[in-house]
Design brief:
399 residues, globular, Aspartate Aminotransferase, domain 1, alpha/beta, 14% strand, 41% helix, three-stranded antiparallel beta sheet, Aspartate Aminotransferase, domain 2, 12 strands
């Protein structure tokens, strides 16, 4: 029996999403077509938009937009790159992008791509899982004194590798106090359905979420865009084409995945308190089990404020890949970090930003929980991890 504890990478598809997907398959018209089949598809798309918007707490009639994308990565790239390309830029380093250290690659690499266009990218430290607000203020002052301007500030809500919850509301408030036209973007992919927030409570102009992190299939994401951002024309599409999704994301909508996304979002909203209590209980059991392994050298990275759903461990003397293979042989699925960077040979930026050494990064394992997990899953993982530590340290397969 497989024990799946890698829910930050992707999640099991829930019953509601499966049912919505099966029903949507029968609605095969193009939502942009004017005939009856297209109108039926368009009505379904509108209902899905309302459902996901409601789950995110977007106010009806606000003028704010919810743009469907193919993934959280695309949503992040649209926000970061699209905000910079929305205006004619000087390209002389006077326009800044601020991001947190250890952001998801879709934000970090999107920001890096702007440097070729003359944007100055400044990374704000996140050591110990805390966004360095003092350094942020310094950066804002430096930008102001130099006569520059902050075009976009992008800070994630929950780190996908450490589980750190960042105070993005305070960060965005600080940015807006000095640069009110800056686009404040939040990657909320790991927070959606797990902690309470709305784009308004965070002070976000744009905000990204992803379907497959909340028990829907892969293939859909969404980007919240505030009415003010649209009115000021502070975001531009990065995919030119037919002008779907209010002109911000061209391409025929993946209605099947979107319908499943909406169903999963509604289910997550309706079961939020119950699901959160379940994950909190599982995390307590996990922490108790890991505490018992402290004498064996198992160390837990503990951010100042953390999500119950993600825990990162260090296993000194055992390479991550070695332990992952051992656990997989015991039918237990965990990871060494972000699945989006699994094929990269580069060490984790998120863990380095947290303060981990190269040796610690090389020996880190991430466990990520969902309400679909059970106490038996936790117990099986702890037992296998305990056995693995003994076998891999004493069985002749040292680093």
């Amino acid at each position: 029996m497989i024990r799946y504890l890698d829910n930050a990478a992707t999640t099991e598809v829930c019953r509601e999403a499966k049912e919505a997907l099966a029903a949507a398959v029968e609605i095969y018209g193009n939502p942009s077509s004017v005939h009856k089949a297209g109108a039926e598809a368009s009505r379904l798309l509108s209902r899905c938009r309302e459902t996901v918007s409601d789950a995110l707490g977007i106010r009806r009639g606000s003028g704010d937009a919810l743009v469907f994308t193919a993934s959280g990565t695309e949503a992040n790239c649209t926000a970061v790159i699209g905000s910079y390309r929305s205006k004619k830029r000087k390209g002389d380093g006077s326009e800044w992008a601020l991001i947190g250290e250890g952001e998801h690659p879709s934000v970090a690499r999107a920001a890096a791509s702007l440097e070729a266009d003359g944007c100055l990218v400044v990374k704000i430290p996140t050591k110990g899982g805390v966004l360095d607000t003092a350094r942020l203020e310094e950066a804002l002052s430096e930008c102001e004194k130099s006569g520059g301007t902050v075009v976009v500030a992008a800070f994630m809500l929950i780190n996908n590798e450490t589980g750190a919850i960042y105070d993005v509301a305070s960060a965005f408030s600080a940015v807006k106090a000095r640069f009110p036209d800056a686009v404040a973007h939040c990657d909320a992919v790991q927070g959606f359905g797990k902690i309470r927030f709305t784009p308004y409570s965070l002070g976000a102009d744009t905000l990204s979420v992803s379907a497959h992190k909340i028990h829907a299939p892969r293939g859909a994401g969404a980007l919240f865009v505030s009415a003010g951002t649209i009115k000021r024309k502070n975001i531009a599409p990065i995919l030119p084409g037919g002008g779907q999704e209010g002109g911000l994301r061209s391409g025929t909508e993946n209605l099947v995945s979107i319908a499943a996304f909406a169903a999963a979002a509604e289910a997550a909203k309706n079961s939020f308190d119950k699901n959160r209590e379940t994950v909190a209980s599982l995390r307590k059991r996990l922490d108790e089990g890991l505490s018992a392994l402290a004498s064996a050298g198992v160390e837990v990275k503990r951010p100042a404020v953390t999500s119950d759903a993600i825990v990162n461990l260090t296993l000194p003397g055992i390479r991550s890949e070695t332990m992952l293979n051992y656990l997989s042989g015991r039918d237990i699925c965990v990871s060494a970090g972000s699945a989006c960077s699994a094929y990269s040979k580069k060490k984790s930026d998120a863990l380095a930003a947290f303060g981990a050494t190269d040796a610690e990064i090389d020996s880190s394992v991430r466990v990520s929980l969902s309400h679909t997990n059970t106490e038996d899953d936790i117990d099986a993982f702890i037992a296998a991890l305990s056995d693995g530590v003994k076998a891999l340290r004493c069985g002749g397969r040292r680093r």
